[in-house]
Design goal:
two-stranded antiparallel ribbon, globular, 3 helices, 31% helix
Amino acid sequence: IYRGTPNRNNQFSNVHAGTFPIDLPEWALQFTKETNIILDQFLGTGTTMVASHQLKRKCYGMELDPKYCQVIIDRMKKLDPSLVIKRNGETVK
């Protein structure tokens, strides 16, 4: 059972209504292996992708809103500037 507390005051709570603390996906991902692929079909601000990267999992995500897509890209670039980020199969610079 996840025992963390919701955090509506994180840096992305003013960007997206469905934010949650990074320790929530980290808790869930503890039950996966490094070779597993993580899929988040509602990526939002990218918290699951950040947690996956920190735990050395490959994460694929989908987000329909271009505003949130850019938030995710910026967040991942800040987390790891060496990442190759692709959007619709095209490398994002």
